[in-house]
Specification:
about 0% strand; Growth Hormone, Chain: A; 18 helices; disordered C terminus; mainly alpha
Amino acid sequence: MSFFDEAPGSKVNWKINLPVLWLGVFLACASFSSCIPFLPVYLLTELKVEQEQVRFWSGLVYAVTFLGASLMAPYWGALADRVGQRKMAIRAGFGLAVTYWLTGVCQNEYQLFAIRALCGLISGFVPAAMSLVSSTLPQERIGWGMGLMQTAAASGSITGPLLGGYLSSWFGMRMSFFVGAVFLSLATVLVIFLVRDVPIGSEKRRQAMHLFHDLGLALRNKELVYIMTMFFLIQSCVMMVQPLITLYVAQLMGAMNDDAVKMAGVIFSLAGIAGIIAAPFWGKRGQRFGFVRIFCLVSLGAGLADLFQVAVTDVWQFAVVQFTYGLFLAGAAPSINANVTVITTREQRGKAFGLLTGAQQMGGVAGPLVGGFLGNWVETRFVFVFISCILMSCSAYSYFTRVKGRPAHPEGLAGKI
């Protein structure tokens, strides 16, 4: 028996799965945010890319990871419905740990590009963990459990940039990638020894996997397509500015130095802090008034907050605006994620989360490329204005197509389909 297999006679216990996977998602998100937001600095200081080429290569190495993930996520999700989410988490965890270690030892931008492409192809730890939690929790606790998992992601997003910023300052940028590899390995070991999956019947194991047929059936769910579209646009907005924030902070502070890197780490962490504060609040409001109504509100609020970037003149003002922006945007992902469990059955959940992850990762492709392109032509503050327009458009579209003239629906965007 390999470590991929369940222990003989093992039983699913959500009271064990939930805290272990919470910690696993926390470690995975901390490993990501401890180093990936600082790739522009890594290119500039460690790989010696010319200043005028940093924005181009930053957008490229961000985008290639998300492109690979967007292509493979539906496949991994459909495969998980056949073989189990636990195996997918183990595969992705160890695979990502290897790519993080390789990133720490690469010597030029071409090697970094290749490693980040591989990272995208084998990614999927967090979606597998989320899907596993949603499949093992009692139905009456799904909303509560998914809210806790969102807190794990937000907490990791806080810890990672702070850790990465200080590790980079004390030991050099490469140490952040080594620590990220260790975190991912630890998260995977926890899954191997403590997490159990929902049993898959022998008949289902023997079935041939008709990937495109299965995904085509899932895509007939109109609400799932709507959720995928919104996730694509939200992720595009989040990632559009990722390659630019560290450089923008350095611009506001007047120099690219250790203080600028540490301050960038603090500002990256503000979104996670905002998520911990605001996500439970928005989750309760979504349960009461309908998730789509709350999505309209938070995307509008985040868009309006981004408009204030035009008036920012120093790094502290930028930090305040980013925190306010995060307070609103923290309600977007939980509203979307919670509704996936409403509009799909357990048997479809792997495919649904795979498609949702694919759409999210495609946003990760589009965002950095658009952000890098705009960053070469306009000031960074006007990139924020562009993001504001997208967010407010999402709000308006959702309101006029799914809210106006309809009663509040406490179950989700449109209830079960």
